[in-house]
Amino acid sequence: MRIAVFSTKPYDRVFLDTANIPHGHQFTFLEPRLSRETAALAARHDAVCAFVNDQLSAEVLSMLHTLGIKLVALRSAGFNHVDLAAARDLRIPVVRVPAYSPYAVAEHSVAMILSLNRKIYRAHNRVREMNFSLDGLLGFDLHGRTIGVIGTGQIGQVLVRIMHGFGCNILANDPYPSDAVVALGGRYVDLPTLYAESDIISLHCPLTPGTRHMIDEQAINQMKRGVMVINTSRGALLDTPAVVEGLKREQVGYLGMDVYEEEADVFFEDLSGHVLQDDLLARLLTFPNVLMTSHQAFFTRDAMQNIAETTLHNLTAFAKDGSTPNAVTVEKHKR
Q: Which of 295, 313, 333, 335 is catalytic?
């Protein structure tokens, strides 16, 4: 098959080329994001391979259909950027990588918790400037603290195991409770209870109409004063202006973000020589108690290898007999 790979970075090419050796597909690696302006680059290909910030709206999918695209292969687990109803109507199957490394994302979440709590990022910068003062670096013991985990799929379950090892009390919220979480002493509660009792809240749920902006002003007001909020899932789970206000009045004491609602034009790019045009993002970066990374929670060697191998498996299965392992459909994922 001939596959147009959008949003390509050097590391994508390395892992996809290696995984493709036994499959023999023809890749065209394209740096631009997939959008209505760039969809024409998929001409003379059989499939497109897209990432999290590529746009797969009804308009773009219609353009791809006109170009003869027969398959959309996502090299991600998330699919909120795809108009699944339009894909169904156009008869373009959409396949994804449902699980690449829950450890990568969960471990990054823990890294953010530890870094925010113990001010590691601030301490590192101080020491490099020969400032060895401890003022302003006071943290707290994780042992005995309560962490609220929203979403206990594979990633959430790994996080629960890690935080249980720290001696934390575990609260959880998920429409499908996990026996593994309960076995570790986790207690499933409604969101108001989780907000009110948690010292740390970590988000590991998908972005759906029901979860969009779930952390809004009302939710923040129900939380403990000084709560730590960690989001390594999807940016739009947070109502970012409401979170900024929560930071300003110190209701939110710590914020760790690996994702951002308007990240598409910023994340994965080197903008060090440019003026940041996103005023809200610029405001977030002024807070000393905000730690932001640019959608790198997934970014481990193990995860990249798994993503590439599953993507190639999806492509080859379709090329061989039209089957679609790891398909995502509007019927299957309607919430």
A: 295
Active site (annotated) includes residue 36: no
> Active-site residue among 75, 204, 234, 261?
234
Do 152 and 96 have their domain in common? no
Regarding pTM above 0.85, the answer is: yes
pLDDT attached to residue 335: 44
Residue 294 burial (CB count, 10 A): 14
Residues 115 and 258 in one domain: yes
Q: What are phi and psi of 232, to 5 degrees?
A: -115, 20
Interacting residues of 169 by C-beta distance below 8 A, sequence separation 6+? 144, 145, 146, 147, 185
207: number of Cβ within 10 Å: 21
Residues 286 and 216 placed together within one structural domain of the fold: yes
Number of separate domains in the chain: 2
The model's pLDDT over 206-242, given as tens digits with 9 standing for 90+, comes to 999 999 999 999 999 999 999 999 999 999 999 999 9
Q: Which of 263, 309, 313, 335 is catalytic?
A: 263
Structural domain includes residue 73: yes
Model confidence over 259-276: pLDDT tens digits?
999 998 899 888 999 999
State both tokens at 236: 């739009």
CATH number where 14 lies? 3.40.50.720
Judge if 74 and 124 occupy the same domain: no
% helix / strand / coil in the chain, to the nearest 5? 40, 15, 45
Strand boundaries in the chain, DSSP class E: 2-5, 26-29, 47-50, 71-74, 94-95, 146-150, 169-173, 187-188, 200-203, 227-231, 252-257, 290-292
Domain that holds residue 197: 102-292
Active site residue 295: yes
Mark whether 217 is an active-site residue: no
Residues 230 and 255 in one domain: yes
